[in-house]
Design goal:
Two copies of one chain form a homodimer.
Chain A: H1 2-7, E1 14-18, E2 21-31, H2 32-35, H3 42-59, E3 63-73, H4 79-92, E4 96-104, E5 109-118, E6 132-136, H5 141-146, H6 153-157, H7 163-172, E7 176-179, H8 184-194, E8 199-202, H9 215-224, E9 231-235, E10 247-254, E11 259-261, E12 264-265
Parallel strand pairs in A: 3-4, 8-11
Antiparallel strand pairs in A: 1-2, 2-5, 3-5, 6-9, 6-10, 7-9, 8-10, 11-12
Helix pairs in contact in A: 3-4, 3-7
């Protein structure tokens, strides 16, 4: 089952050549219990359900065009706030909320599906030994919120997909990219799978971490925490990183097929789904 | 809530002008208990989850391009057969299965989202008094299967979206179109909502019905039964119906804003979702 699943998720989006440009498409399913942190409002759930798809589109370097939302509702009274949040997120990124589907369901379930376009599609594959490994912004803030540091709640509850950043990085010439919403290290393992000819080393001292909490926790959150909507990318060492972006070199691409953090093989930890076989 | 819902579902698809053509997009959510008839195999569930979206695209007169599938799985072992059925349906209609998302869920939940293109988009609105009202094929076979007439099971379990038919009807110049998967009369009420300036009359003697069952049941299934994947359309009386299609005139478009069957106001019955407010 994993093998079939993997074939279908080696990139954040499917890519279709389309005239002189490329259409990218992504779909994401979220469930109340498994995917929405406790304490969120329905407006925030609507926002997040769109944000996850916009983040996938951003990770391809694409400009979002529209998002559709299928909502399985346990109570009809929740719909208005959910759609309000979904529309706010679409509006914030210049995407249309193109309707969707409604259904009754025991557990609130939302699936957002989005379309974007890019002349420079960037996938998870494409990293080359010698490339730099970079991340955008501070890592681990959403996890800090999950662990009770409530001043970081906005990062967890109203994540901001990095659409402009993804487009700029793709244009600048990054060789591979993905979003890190499942966690940095687990995402590097995903990238490892898409890049059989190389591996990744991370120097944790270079990680932009949450500053105001104990350093051990902060390091842990930045490496293994989920819920951040940052971008991970690789680029040639000579490439100029867009100056207007909050982007950090945290390591490099190596020839060996492994993920090393501070010289040791990294634990494959992060946010993962578990099925009963 | 209904009002918000209705705003978002006045057509089977959202339509975006796209260069010289139009992109249409649709998303559909299906749950194991509410939407899949008992007795289906997982391969058939995969097939149906794609078929509903292809039918929405067909009802706009569009050619499907790709479908994405988000699957919330109760047991991972089901995935292979589900994806097999989804892929078979896509392959049968020349659409790509463009990956999707996987997730764990207590109840099997599937959301398919599809994109198509058409130079002649046809919506639910556009009917004009004096137009003919038409349907494709025999009505009520899926409902007959649901009611225990098992020789009709294939129509219920492996519905065939009328993609070629929708494209031909759009090119021929139909003024409005939708699919009838929720039932004929309930779909006419949906069309009524999209067409404030007219209404519909049906002469039930003209309905192509299931022949081998008692006439009373057959009439009921054809008017109110769900699960058929036929098309309902309106067209000018002078328009030539494509000769290669199994299409039937069953009534006409009138000035009064009502749905009449054999001269009486039709019951608003059919397949509907119920929410706890």
């Amino acid at each position: 089952m994993e093998i079939i699943g993997r074939e279908h998720c080696l990139d954040d989006c499917a890519v279709f050549p389309f005239g002189k440009t490329n259409m990218v498409a992504s779909t994401d399913m979220l469930h109340e219990k498994a995917d929405f942190p406790a304490g969120m409002t329905d407006r925030q759930r609507g926002w997040m359900s769109v944000a996850v798809t916009l983040s996938d589109i951003a990770a391809m370097g694409a400009e979002p065009c529209f998002v559709m939302l299928a909502v399985g509702l346990d109570r009809g009274s929740r719909l208005k706030a959910i759609l309000q949040g979904a529309k706010e997120c679409c509006d914030s990124y210049g995407a249309a909320l193109a309707g969707g589907d409604l259904d009754a369901h025991e557990e609130l379930t939302m699936v957002s599906s989005g379309i974007g376009f890019t002349d420079h599609p960037v996938g998870r594959a494409g990293a080359r030994p010698g490339d730099l490994l970079c991340v955008t912004g501070v890592q681990g803030r959403a996890q800090a919120a999950l662990e009770g540091y409530h001043r970081y709640d906005p990062f967890l509850f109203e994540p901001l997909p990095l659409v402009r950043e993804g487009i700029l990085l793709a244009k600048a010439g990054v060789t591979s990219m993905m979003d890190n919403s499942d966690g940095l290290v687990i995402s590097l393992y995903d990238m490892l799978e898409a890049n059989p000819g190389c591996g990744y080393v991370v120097d944790s001292r270079l990680l932009p971490m949450v500053a105001e909490i104990p350093p051990d926790e902060s390091r842990d959150f930045s490496l293994y925490g989920g819920g951040d909507f940052g971008l991970i990318c690789t680029c040639p060492s000579w490439m100029e990183l867009p100056g207007e972006l909050d982007i950090h070199v945290i390591g490099s691409v190596i020839q060996d097929h492994e993920v090393l953090v501070d010289g040791k093989e990294a634990d494959m930890k992060g946010y993962q789904h578990v099925w009963n076989e």
